Amino acid sequence: MQIRHVRGRTQFLRTYYVKELKRSKQKLIGSIARGATELPPDLAAKMNEEEKAEFAAWLDKQREAEREALAAQEIDRLPHSLQNVAGHVMRGVPLTGGQALGMWEGMAQLRRQLTKAGYTKPHLTDKEPSSQE
Questions:
Q1: Is 42 in the same domain as 72?
Q2: I need a labelling partner for 86 at 20 to 30 A (CA). Which of 7, 16, 78, 117 fits?
């Protein structure tokens, strides 16, 4: 079975071999809205167990790709967000105790995880660029 995206829909195609033509052909089994996470009952009825398992594996792969993309976005935005928050605090924007505590705990956890991952703290002054970029 082939799964592909076409104009906002996810299509499911079954490939079969035509002996007389000596080539394979594809038949559209059905389609769902792009981003849907379940098969409608009528489409599920048209699929065999192997195709359903293939859809489940494909869906897991799509979810993992989405998680990785989201993680990459969050990591890319974090340095800028930290600089923005530092600027707000420097200008005297008030924080609640819970916000401040959450930030300290988050920075401590981030520091531990960076160290475990092998990213040691660079020794920088305020004006030196990071050597780890």
A1: no
A2: 117
